[in-house]
What does this fold into?
Amino acid sequence: MKRENVLSWDEYFMSVAHLSAKRSKDPNTQVGACIVNPDKKVVGMGYNGFPMGCNDDEFPWEREGSLLETKYPFVVHAELNAILNSIQSLHGCTIYVSLFPCNECAKAIIQSGIKRVIYESDKYNGTETNIASKKMFKEAGVETIQLPYTISVETLVKKHEG
It folds into this structure.
């Protein structure tokens, strides 16, 4: 008899996104992304961090201050890193991301050909950049789906153990 109570595909791929987020050195927000093709194969992963070659001890992690004293002009978001790290065309793919994409990431997602965004948190819901993301996704025909639960790798392990 086969084992029951296995991870759903959404649980599995969002868990991969969370595992990727564990690589982020951001002291406030760790975001991970996992891109999956229509055959349910992982074709790209990423997390938020500084560009390659930029020493994370030499750049600011602050959230407040003048622009150049903060992380914002320097950090590459998880979604863009996953797109840049992809190993194939992304047309028709799905991206799993722990935080709803900002407007800049939304543009990259649309341009890459990704057709579905599955996300957990929408903590910036109602902000201007969030509204812009949702408007672009709707116009471009990119489906957005919020998971009705939050993935915790620890909780999943307990839930799915024998």
In short: The CA atoms of residues 93 and 124 lie 24 Å apart.
